[in-house]
Amino acid sequence: MFIINYIKEIYSGLKSLVVGLRRTLFYFTHHKEIITEQYPDNRATLNLAQRFKGEVVMPHDENNEHRCTGCTACELACPNGTIKVITKFDLTPEGKKKKAIDKLVYHLELCTMCNLCITACPSDAIKMAQTFEHSVYDRSQLTKVLNFEGSKIMDGVE
Amino acid sequence: MWSLSNIASGIHEWLSKTFPSTVVTVVEMVIVGVCVISLFAILGLVLVMMERKVSAWIQIRLGPNRVGPKGMFQSMADTVKLLVKEGMTPTGADKFLFNLAPYIAIIVSMLLMAPIAFAKDLTMWNLNIGVLYVSAISSVSVISILMAGWASNNKYSLLGAMRSGAQIVSYELSAGLSILCIVVLVGSLNLNDIIASQSNGWWIFKGHIPVFIAFIIFLIAATAETNRAPFDLAEAESELTAGFHTEYSGMKFALFFLAEYVNVFIVCAIGATLFFGGWMPLHIGHWEAFNHIMDFIPSSLWFFGKIFFLIFLIMWFRWTFPRLRIDQLLNLEWKYLLPISMFNLLLVTAMAILGWYF
């Protein structure tokens, strides 16, 4: 009985080693699988991973309109105070006051790219961009205002 | 036909005609020494480059590709870097032993070059106990490792050296037993006789399964004896920083590094000699035309081709398998490899007596 177990053990051990060797031989012979990006050389055709997160941006459409309602859900969701929503009150044509954003301040230097603000946003106003060349000469340049100058909220977004 | 042995005998004849025999011996020794040292340098460059490329492709990377065409001069640039670096000796170290250790490592691998037949009729020293000589000298390399570890005055180095000692002493056994399988079949310890016995077929084909098992055990033991992953417990970067050569820098480190690669080359050369027929070309039965074409490839090319195939196997192992723990390492040797190789030796002996091989 002992000898059978012994041989079985050797067989299964060798088999698992062969599985590993086959995998590495496949990679050795298939150079198309190489995932290295030669970054400064291929800057134009850079192929980033789908889930790579670079910075938070607020997409605007061609009429300079965004989808942010100023609900501050992102500010509350942020674990380290990266986002600061400064709200104002717009007057609707009916003469009612309506909450809107004045500035959405984003501190890139504090952001950990945790994606919590994006999941918290109820109106999909912000998203993660894949930019990554963030170096600047002064720290103050890392504090960004996400909504564009003179932008306003899209119709139909509550 | 052009061959290395013709050049060697030509030089020998010319020297014997012009100088007295003592001078001839001295000059030939110098020539051989220069050849060995240049072979060392070339091997170091080529093998380091090969290792880096193989590891890169296996790990889905590109590897060095900046210095020279396709990055081929990277190892040369590294050599220049190592040459200009300061070779420091730590304050608490035993200075004499510390500086001696890398030279012993390199001398051991130089000595191992002696009995290897590099091409047809091209051996530095046609030794009648070649196999014994190789296994005896290769175990001296453990002294250099222990010396380096002890003299460094560093607990990591000492631990690495001690592990290496345990490892080499135990794997020497199964390496020896698997080499003995071939010696039993051939009936001679001379490496040239072993090669000559394979003129009608390499032992790995002639000897069926037992010799194949012996070859696998030899390969495992050779990997362990050269301290390469998955048996690189002597260095074990993640546990012992760099093991016995933690404190070495500059050219002294480079000598250890070179000795490691040259040792890989030598164990592969021994493996090629024992199992793959040394410089013998591949012959298949009675295919006269095929055999004739194979004879046209120079014997040295055959030998180096086989060696580099085996080196590739060892590199492939290194970049595929995870490192063993020290107890797993000794288990593997004493509970698996040693009993199997002893049983295998019995099988081979029976085979040799009954003549069950081609």
Give structural attributes.
heterodimer; A: 158 residues; alpha+beta; three-stranded antiparallel beta sheet; two-stranded antiparallel sheet; 3 helices; 7 strands; B: mainly alpha; two-stranded antiparallel ribbon; 70% helix; 1% strand
Folded structure, characterized:
The complex is a heterodimer of chains A (158) and B (358). Chain A is of the alpha+beta class. Chain A has helices spanning 2-29, 73-77, 116-120; strands at residues 55-57, 65-66, 83-91, 97-107, 127-129, 143-145, 152-153. In chain A, the strands form 3 sheets. In chain A, strands 3-4-6 form a 3-stranded antiparallel sheet, with no helix packed on it. A two-stranded antiparallel sheet of chain A has the order 1-5. In chain A, a hairpin with a 5-residue loop joins strand 3 and strand 4. The longest helix of chain A has 28 residues, at 2-29. Chain A is elongated. The model of chain A has no long low-confidence stretch (mean pLDDT 85). Helices cover 70% and strands 1% of the residues of chain B. Chain B has helices at residues 4-18, 21-58, 74-84, 95-112, 130-138, 141-151, 155-186, 191-196, 203-206, 208-225, 237-240, 250-275, 288-296, 299-318, 326-354, and strands at 117-119, 122-123. In chain B, strand 1 (117-119) and strand 2 (122-123) form a beta hairpin. The longest helix of chain B has 38 residues, at 21-58. Classes of the chains: A alpha+beta (158), B mainly alpha (358). Chains A and B meet through helix 1 of A and helix 2 of B.
